[in-house]
Amino acid sequence: MADTEANPAWLQHQEAAGAIVVASSGLAEREAEDTSEDEGSESEDDEIERDYPPGPICAEKCTLGGPGYTGGAAKSTVSFFVTAKDERGTRIREGGAYCVATVRPGNAARAAGADIVTASVKDNNDGTYTASYSVAARGDYEV
């Protein structure tokens, strides 16, 4: 990107390392850092966020939630959210990542003619992403 000063710190780190991060791939590498605990009144998450800036997105540490993650109805649009986190589990509080969400049918849904669906993803510019999708057939699906 031309103006790296305007990009979030974690994105600058990815670009400097030549990494391409796709949330569905889980391919994010970074150097191991000392995460020793200091005593204090702050929570461990606050301490980690204060001491270490977030690293690149790690798909395995991102969290999902919402009605489109736990269920839905065929031929109805449902949504779920993705909260971006780095490999230490630290929440990334800036948008700008490339996020892909794929919904795959289970055996019964595949038998009913369901195909893999790529969800429409909206960047909320705060480290969360809203994914919306609709499936054609009833059955179990995997996000």
UniProtKB/TrEMBL annotation:
InterPro entries: Filamin/ABP280_repeat-like (IPR017868), Ig-like_fold (IPR013783), Ig_E-set (IPR014756). Filamin repeats lie at residues 59-143. This is Uncharacterized protein. It comes from the Eukaryota. PROSITE patterns: FILAMIN_REPEAT. Signal peptide: none annotated. Pfam families: Filamin. Gene3D superfamilies: Immunoglobulins. Residues 31-49 have a biased composition (Acidic residues). Residues 21-56 are annotated as: Disordered.
